[in-house]
User: Fold this.
Amino acid sequence: MENGSSKPNTASGFGKHTERYRICMVSDFFCPGFGGVEIHIYNMAQRLIARGHKAIVVSRMYDDDRVGVRYMPNGLKVYYLPFYSISVPAGIVTLPTMYGAFPIFRNILIRERIQIVHGHQTTSGLCHQCISHAKTMGLKTVFTDHSLFGLADAPSIHINKVLEFTLSDIDHVICVSHTSKENTILRARVNPSKCSTIPNATDTTAFTPSARVKYRSWGFVENITIVVMTRLVYRKGVDLLVEVVPEICKLNPTVKFLIGGDGPRRVQVEEMIERNQLFDRVTMLGEVPHAKVGSVLSQGQIFLNCSLTEAFCIAIIEAVSTGLLAVSTAVGGVPEVLPNDMLILAEPEPDALVRATQQAIQRVRTVQPWEFHNRVRSMYSWDDVAERTETVYHTMMQTPSPKFSDRIVSCWNMGNDKMLGFSVYATICCVIRALEWLVWVLLEWFWPEKNIEVTLDFPMHSYKLLKDSCQP
Assistant:
């Protein structure tokens, strides 16, 4: 999708289908966590339920009070698994156990009669484990990649090898931008015919401009406010931010900054404020709940994104939907998100970002917020994303599942570190997969499927009747 087009040419054109599937979304990143992956999974699950499918979510426990089964609106059932977590640069993830999650995950899949397991995010250990377990059980599997990774640095090489193993026999891969698709195909050596581009979206009803600017432009505003909403980590460009903010304040005496978000680089931003004496120009909000992001965005006129890498960036969509003119680094899939009159791009360098922000300051007074909102609403919709994902599910369900021998062969063909006529990496992967099959056989013997009680589905029809009856 380029220049803000809302109709990518992949995963579309198959028509609508009436089949209803039972889907399990899996990731370490879910509510009450905050981020693009969490928002994506929640909205996707809700839209799939609205379209008549059965959707559940499996994630890690959050602290000690968010563990077990929880229900969210519209009967969305969430399993928070009681496994230990570790902190990594990408966030907090489940401690990899190889087969430790297999017994409880198998139980969930059987109880819920799941047909499709849909994993999210490369850095989620739980996602990799559960996709592999589901494939061993003969279920259909899908993976959505939300981030970009390198090809040469040590951490990227490691995670790319793990991803290659997970996707070696995946049924389908979804990427949130064309750039992300190319990156995933190169990193994991995925067959391009198994990979589709389906962009993210946003709930535009939660991100609307203030009523005071309806039928008006930002020309009446005396002082421009630039909003930054991001996690304060290296990948989000904090090093760029601390150089851009003082320069913009120096060039524009009336411009103010509103910075929302938290992270390990927060101290760096606070030091910048103190060093340049910008206490009355820059306001730090700390971590902002997603429900309040819209109200924070509506206080500004320009949105600034300094990310060093982005596969898509939902935050830009949310900001422009609220009526803000966006300025962003031209990295990853960001240039595909919106047209040039709504999004000003710059190279990830301080001087380039300062020039782009200055351009935005000069142009923003001609922006009509509600026009931006209406255009974004016509471009992005979770219903559209759910429909395209539904098409992927339908196409995938029509293909036969590979035999265990085929899965071993796909493992054997991985890797390019050939020594003595075979690949050490591929051999290790084959052993892991064979042992996983053995664990599954043992589980079937010790805990037969017929002895596992099937759960009742959420009474959606009765729920809707009750909900409607409570409406004023």
Q: What stands out?
A: The CA atoms of residues 20 and 53 lie 5 Å apart.
